Amino acid sequence: MSDGRLTEEHLEQFSRDGFLVLEGFSSPEEVAQLKARGEELVEAFDAENVSIFSTRRQESTTDRYFLDSASSVSCFFEEKAFDSEGKLVADKTRAINKIGHAMHDLDPVFRRWSRSPKVAAVMESLGFQRPLPVQSMLIFKQPYVGGEVVPHQDSSFIATDPLSCVGIWLALEDAMRSNGCLWALPGSHTKGVHRRFLRAPDGSVTFDADAPQLDDSGFVPVEVKAGSLVLLHGANVHRSSENSSPLSRHAYSMHIVEGAPGYAWQPDNWLQRRADVPFEPLYDHSSGSGSSSKRAPAFVHAAAACRAAAPSAVAPAAVGRPAAAGARPY
Ligand SMILES: O=C(O)CCC(=O)C(=O)O
């Protein structure tokens, strides 16, 4: 079983491709605990009261629920789970798309895994001085109804200045092409962050530009066994397809930024924590007592990617596009 420390070869691969697979990162027991806890959370969720998820009818309530999920453990449904009246048409165990976004802080079982020495060792290897997990999601790719996740870059949604996001994605079940595994575009992290998902002071969210046209043939499938960890550079473009198979494909994903001095969390990120639920670092070596590697941190974004602190770089005509119904960060 991995202790989380990355080899030179791992780091070279991550720098070259913008993603990396660590097979067998978590034991079958660890995976089983996370899955079981996910099932308990779904079981405890009151699905009788789901009218708030009918996005077309009650957009402001839905948006409030979404924004508040930055500081809570909240359930989100598959779009296909509702009829035209906004009523849930599937059993909740088959209708929930994900739970997020503060599981790594608020849920004891997910917190234990998220803050394990092994996860901290990965972040240390990537060069983080003060890694701040800011977002976590238990992602359910349900049999037959599990939806597509369109191509995106995590740094579009999660920005520091300068950019520093890294995603870690743990397969809780085997993820194959047939049940909607991740697909990643190798090298895409060197080409810049295409757009940002911005939160206005009134709480509305917009993309600041259209999604770029991408050559679909460049994506490679990231097929992994349960327990494997996939690391994703924040500027890597990745996606996943619908799950039209009878097998579910569940995963736990966490997004981490550098919280050392010199890195600023952006006030126009959609994700803003309540004051009583502050971000908590995995460790803090920023005062100088930690490792002093000469290597540039692996999470560094190409200069062209650093749009976080440059509002003037956002073409005025592009600002203010409403997020498409159902568009949610991943
Ligand atoms: O699990 C998926 O299908 C998508 C996950 C993802 O895009 C992410 O964790 O950044």
From TrEMBL:
Presence of the UniProt keyword Signal in the record: no
Gene3D superfamilies: q2cbj1_9rhob like domain
Keywords from the named record: Iron, Metal-binding
SUPFAM superfamilies linked: Clavaminate synthase-like (SSF51197)
GO molecular function, one term: metal ion binding
PANTHER family in the record: PHYTANOYL-COA DIOXYGENASE DOMAIN CONTAINING 1, PHYTANOYL-COA DIOXYGENASE DOMAIN-CONTAINING PROTEIN 1
Protein name, as recorded: Phytanoyl-dioxygenase
